[in-house]
Design brief:
alpha/beta, seven-stranded mixed β-sheet, elongated
Amino acid sequence: MQEKTAHTLLGAFILSALAIAVVATLLVAGRGYDAANSQTVIMVFDGSVYGLNKGAPVAIRGANIGQVTDIRVRLQHADELRLWMEVEAVINRAAVAAVADGDATLGPELINSGLRAQLNNSSFLTGLLFVQLDFFPETDVQIRAPESDYFEIPTIPSPFDQLVMDVNTLNFRSLAANLQDTAEAIRALTTSDAFQQIPENTNRALQTVTQVGGTLEQMMTELQPQLEATLSSTAAAAQVAEQQIPLIADETRQAISQVQQALESVDRAAANAAQFLEPDSPTLYNLNMTLSEISRASRSLNSLTRSLEESPQSLLLGRPDEEEP
């Protein structure tokens, strides 16, 4: 019973959406445009225009400024046959406000600024399309009806059409061949002897790791007593050092104090020496007098020595009297 009610509500919602779309299309189609305030334009599309009907809105950034008046198939006979869809629309100039003294007519300056037309869905339920105008300055300008009497607005594909075009450009046969080659390469890899030996090699590696782990555990067990002894010795040395450091610090302070006292004594001795060596110092004067006396005594001693050498008997008889002249 609940499933039947849900289906009924869904059908009613779809019928309501269709009715609203039809009423909106009829209202738009019944709207007339003054020839003096309207401009006829054309747009040529590459893809399908299924869902675009006469009277469909022409909007620029969501604002309705016109409607579709005709849809035609355009055959282009050139190097190759091209089939395009030509859409004719009328633009209401009254819906486009001109700035300053500008003209509300769509012209080449807007095309140069990037004005393009594309088809968008007005409703995903109904599948109806409308013409959306917007600015895409990075796209190329493609004029496909230069001989037309009406102003042509270049077109660009909608995001969905662009996706379809990108998918169509894919080379599925080449992709399938590449996938097949990849699958064969994977199969050859998985069936090779080296790949088959991976589990055995992995087990060997795990066994080696296990053996290394056991060896390391045994080594740690053997080294644990030595490590504990080393740690104990280090702790004892640290304790001794902690006890000796204050004594060493005291002895160092005493040595520094003695060095400072010795430096003070040297300073005092240097000051006294400087005082003794001054030119007017009494000590220096007495020293000079003493040296003079010593010099005179030395000369007298030298004279006596020469006299004794010349007259040794004078030591007993005395010096002879000098002859009178």
